[in-house]
Each structure stands twice: as structure tokens, then as C-alpha cells.
Amino acid sequence: MSIIAITPMITFAQADDTSTQSDTIYDPIRVVYADRFVADNKNEDATQYYTGDVKIVHDSTFFQCDSAVTTEKYLVAFDNVTIIKSDTIETFSNILHYDAITEVATLVDDVAVINGQQELYTDTCYYDLVRNIVSYPDTALMISENSKLSSRSGRYELNNKFAYFYQDVVVIDSAFTLLTDTLHYDIASSKASFFGPSFITQDATQIYAEKGYYNTSTGDAFFEKNAKYNSETGKATSDIMRYLPDESKVILEGNAIVKDSSYYATADRIEYDDKDSTIIMVGNAFFKDDESRAEGETIKLNQKTGDIQIYGNGWYQNGNTELSSDTILYNEKTKIGKTTGKSVFTDNENDRRLYADHLDYKADGSYIAYNDTSRPYIEQVDKGDTTYLAADTLYSYSVPRDSTGVDSVEYFIGYPNVRIFSERFQAVADSLSYALQDSTLSLFGNPIAWADTSQFAGDTVIMKNDDEGISDIHLYGKANIINFLDDRHQDQIKGKTIHAELDSQSMKHMAVVGNAETIYFLRDEIGHYIGANKTICSYINFIFEEGELSDVKFHGEPVSEMNPIGVATDDALYLSDIKWNESNRPSSKDDLLTDTMNTQGIDPESQDSDAEQELEKDKEVDTFEAEIKEALKKNKRKK
Fold first, then answer.
1. Number of domains in the chain
2. How many alpha carbons lie under 13 Å from residue 625 in its C-beta half-sphere?
3. Which of 70, 129, 272, 354 makes a 20 to 30 Å CA pair with 51?
4. Three-point CA angle 289, 290, 294, nearest 5°
5. Please, what is the average pLDDT of the chain?
6. CA-to-CA distance for 322 and 126, rounded, in angstroms?
7. Structural domain contains residue 216
8. Does some domain include residue 32?
9. Best CA proximity match to 474, nearest among 492, 449, 453
10. Under DSSP, is residue 7 helix (H, G, I), strand (E, B) or coil?
């Protein structure tokens, strides 16, 4: 480029501001080397023209170019222009305008600013060499390590390595792409903060937010204001989103909602740990998938292992069953779990609820229920009548129906201190077994059962239910039945075994076998008791029609004795070793729960804290289960 060609392009300040300039203190521009030099001293400000490897110094800044025009105050440089401000900052362009007074340089055409590992490229920029700030009015690109940032305008503070990008900002990183309107980039910390509607794309994932930051070095990200997440597998929204790649965590805070193809979750805060596929929902947490639903203050779910933990007013539903408790721990794959604190297990199909402080689930589907105080109990609703059953410990298990193991019978057992209450039926026993499939209730340990004015007792009591209620009653060992008439008069039956058949809750047939004894009270026409008939024989058959006794058959040389009421002694009025036991009869649900717990029972607190006692409890349950099964076998053989 010739000097003649470039001269008309040069315009310097003239006389209008001479007085001001003359009063200004500044360092003059000094050319330290050039291959060729021409001076023009016609004007007040002497002008010099330089070509060929031009080297210029002003203050602490070094300039280099192919050609230049200078005065003491101004510099215009052309082709291969270089500015060296320090050991780390270099600036390149094809054209440079520099004011020595303001120390501001205007760089045009293929501008590049290099500051260590950061590179800024644009067509035009303004470089304040005093404050070390580069600004650009039109499109620029910054390259910083693995990231590229571009915008329509911006400012780059080289000293503190902070850049401001405005209008049509684009960040392209190895891990993501960001589109926004305003972005502040702290190069020292690699933190890019964005403002206004922003779109982040990462593989097949899109994120929208109106404020936040992304660390281009660590990958940490923070999104807020209408934050939304969208991917091929799911969607998420929250007030705040955080991404911590070093911990493989995504955190949603404030009105958090996550939806994907397999589940839906919402909470005040949701944390997802990609390392172990764990989802933690905190505050008004709710979760559902194809098989289950859960609610609680906190829900923790491991999608790999199937573990689900629910804390604080927890609720869990799977199929027709629901479980509520202060704490629920359950594994959906192994079917093992436990609850702690005011637990309610609901079987909606059978309208049955189990209440306990603790429920422990086993892999075979069985469970054990126990309390810290009071006692666990079952609430069963059937045709408008509610039955309550309580014991110190409640336990369920299944037994294969046959050798194939395909079908099984589910049993429910309770021990000790069993109490049962309903409006139609009450009972007490040491232990019980209940077969859910055929509604057979077996009571053990000197049980007593009451139905209206009748009392049934023996070493073992077995009752079978049908759709109409109790259909069969079997009493074994010291079997006896008392029909309460008043405090002094009761019809009584006892023997080794008693079998009663009922139809629609009305007695149809009853057989007393082995050492059968009865006391039956006779009345006159106006209902006054006139005598007590006592009979002893081998066995007795009672036949009923429409619930009323129609025939009695005594077998094995019966012996009968009639005792008039006026002269009858207690021996004539009452059979030995049996009595009406109203004091032990539960009269409400509260009687089941306030009864003193058996001190021989299991201490649930020691179970939680002592692994050895946990094993002892399992042994006790297994032993008791074996005893129940053996008793059921014996009763079947007797029948």
C-alpha cells in the first residue's frame, strides 16, 4: 500500500480544539522503527508516514503494523496490526485508529483479541487501553477453552477476565448449546450467567429458563424463572433447577414436577441422582407409576433396586391395597419392607384395615404387626357390620393348597391376648388363626366366644363363615355352650366336642359328643321357670326348625333328672367347671385396645434395637405358626 493512496483517509483534529489539546498532558506517540519514513510538517500537528515493519510505542503499549500515519496524539495503522499490552494480551486487526489522549483504539477488519486461553474475534471493536476493556458494536465470537460464545454486541474486561454479551447470544459448548439475550461470563470461574428468555440444548434435552448460570468448566448449572426441562423420555418444571455433574445430580426446587414414560412425581423439591438412579422428593411429595402411588413429606425411590422410602404422613398404594404410616420402607422387587408409627394397611377388595405401630413384610407376602403401646388391631367391614380384632402381635402367612404350589391358602394369626368385637360377635383367646379363603376362624388357648345371648367355649373353638354369617361352630376339649336367660338361669351344654350347624345365623343342628351333659330350664305358660332338667349321656343330637329346637335325641343310656326351681341347689342349676363369663366379654372396640398387654409377648422396642431379639421373634413366630398348623391338622382329623 502506497503512502499517496492512504493519505486522503487520514483526518486529524484541527484548530477548533487546539487550546483544549494543548492544555492536556499526555505521552506522545513514538515510532521506534520503520523501513521507510516521510514527514509532513505543513500542519500545526506534524504528520509522519511510515511503511515496512513499523514499530510504535505509547506509554506501556507496543504497536506493530505494515504502515502507519502518526502525530504526537493520533495513530492510524494498516495491515497486520498488532497491539501488545502485556505478556498475555495481544490484539490483531487490519486497521487501527488510536487516540493518545484517551488511549482508546478503534480496530477494524479481522479483529482478534488474545488474552491467555481466551480469544475474541470481531470486525470492529473499541479497545480502552487504560481500563483494558474491549467493546464491540456488532457480532463477535469468543473462544474460551471448550466453549464458543457469540453475540451482536458486548464488552470484554481483560483485567478481571469478565465479558458481557448482548443480543442474540449463542454459547456452544462440548456439552450444550445456549441461546439467550444477555449473558455475563466470568472467565476466571468459567461461570456464564444469563438473563431473559434462554434456551439450552444438550443432546436430545431442551431446557428453558429466564435466569441462571452455567459453568463451562465444571458443568454445574442453575436455572430459575419458569424453568422447564424437556427430553425424549420426560419433562420437568420447577421454580429452580440445578445440575451438578460431578455428583451426577439434578435438583428441582419449588413446585417441582417430573413426568416421563414410566412415572410422574411432584414435590417442593426433587433430587435425581443418576449414579444410583435415586429420586428424592421432599415436601408435599407425590409419586405414581404404572403399578403404585405414594404420598408423604419425603419420598426416596431407587429405580434400580426397587427400594421406596416414605417419611412423614406416608401413603402407599399398590393394586387394591393401601398403606399409610409415619415411615414406610418397602422394596417393590423383593416385596420386603416395614413401617413405623401409626400404620394402617387397607385391603380395599375385602374392605379390611389393619392398624399397628409397626408392620414388617416378608418376601413370601407374609407380615407381622405389633405396637409400642396399646395393641394392633384389624377392622373388617361386612354387610354393614364391623368386626374388630386385636392381639399383642398379628401375623399373616400363606400355605400351598397342594403339592403344585400354584394355589395357596392365606392365613392370619394373632397372639397372645386375642380380643374380637362386633355387634353380633365377641371373643377372647390366647391366640387365633383365620383362613381368608374360606373365612374359617380358629381360636386357641381356652377361648370364649359370644353371639347375642350365647357363649361358646373350649380348649379350641373353630368357626366357619359363609355369605350369611357363621355357618359352622366346632368346639374341642372341655367344649361347652351357655345360653344366657338371666343372671341365675342359663341353659348349658358341655362335652368333649360340640359341632353346631347354622343356616342364615339360625341354629339348624348341633351334636354333643363324649361325656355329654345338659341343663335345660322349663317354663310355664306365662314364662315362669318351673324346673331345671339335667341330662347326662354319651352324646346328644339337637335338631332345630326355623331356629327353634324341635327335637333332642340322647344316645348311650342317658340319665335325666328334673329339679323344681324352688328346691334346686346350685349343683342342679349349673354344670361343673363352666360359667357365664360376662366380665371378659368385650363391649366395644376400646376394650380391645386398652386391655393390659401380655408380659410374655414380644417387646417391639427391643426388636428394633437388637438384632438378636429380631431373630428370636422370627423363631417364636415360626414356632407358633407350626403349633397353629398342627392344631388345625388335629381338628381336621377329629372332624
1. 2
2. 19
3. 129
4. 40
5. 83
6. 70
7. no
8. yes
9. 449
10. helix
In percent, how much of the chain has pLDDT > 70? 87
pLDDT at residue 402 greater than cutoff 70: no
Q: What is the pLDDT of residue 401?
A: 62
Give the strand pairing for 74-84 and 61-70.
antiparallel
DSSP states along 457-497: ESSEEEEEEETTEEEEEEEEEEEEEEEE-SSS-EEEEEEEE
Q: What is the pLDDT of residue 399?
A: 72
More confident residue, 376 or 275: 376
The better pLDDT of the pair 576, 362 is held by 576
Please give the angle made by the CA atoms of 132, 138 and 142, to the nearest 5 degrees: 60
Cell numbers found for residue 502: 347354622
Distance CA 200, CA 599 (A): 65
Residue 607 backbone zone (phi > 0: left; psi -120 to 50: alpha; other: beta): alpha
> From CA 596, how far away is CA 606, in angstroms rounded?
19
CA–CA dist 474, 428 (Å, integer): 16
Q: Report CA-CA distances (Å) from 466 to 117, 382, 383.
A: 85, 11, 12
Cell matching residue 100: 493518545
pLDDT: which is higher, 23 or 464: 464
CB burial string 474-505: b at 16+ within 10 A, e below: bbbebbbbbbeeeeebbbbbbbbbbbbebeee
**∠ at Cα 418 (416, 423), nearest 5°?**
175
Does the residue 218 lie in any domain?
A: no
Give the separation between CA 185 and CA 178, rounded to whole angstroms.
13
Residues 549-587 have pLDDT tens digits of 788 899 888 899 999 988 888 888 999 999 999 999 999
- The grid coordinates listed for 357 are 405401630
- SS3 per-residue string spanning 599-616: CCCCCHHHHHHCHHHHHH
Of the residues 101, 132, 163, the one at which a domain ends: 132
The three cell numbers of residue 42 are 505543513
Q: Is the whole-model pTM more than 0.85?
A: no
Tens-place pLDDT, residues 583-617: 999 999 888 887 553 323 333 333 333 334 334 44
**Contact indicator for 327, 314 with CB cutoff of 8 Å:** yes
| Type of residue at 515 | N
Average pLDDT over residues 413-430: 90
* Dihedral pair phi/psi, residue 613, rounded to 5°: -70, -30
Q: Which residue has the cell 433430587?
A: 271
Q: What is the residue-wise DSSP string for 308-357?
A: EEEEEEEEEEETTEEEEEEEEEEETTT--EEEEEEEEEEETTTTEEEEEE
Domain carrying residue 88: 1-132
Q: Residue length, the chain?
A: 639
Buried b / exposed e along 403-437 (16+ C-beta atoms within 10 A): eeeeeeeebbbbbbbbbbbbeebbbbbbbbbbbee
* Torsion over CA: 324, 327, 331, 335 (sign): negative
Whether 545 maps to a domain, the answer reads yes
Domain C-terminal end among 81, 111, 132: 132
Count of H-run helices and E-run strands, the chain: 6, 44
More confident residue, 545 or 100: 100
CATH, residue 554: 2.60.450.10
Three-class DSSP labels, 71-121: CCCEEEEEEEEEEECCCCEEEEEEEEEEECCCCEEEEEEEEEEEECCEEEE
Q: Which of 144, 133, 137, 102 is nearest to 123 (CA)?
A: 137
Chain centroid to Cα 341, Å, comes to: 17
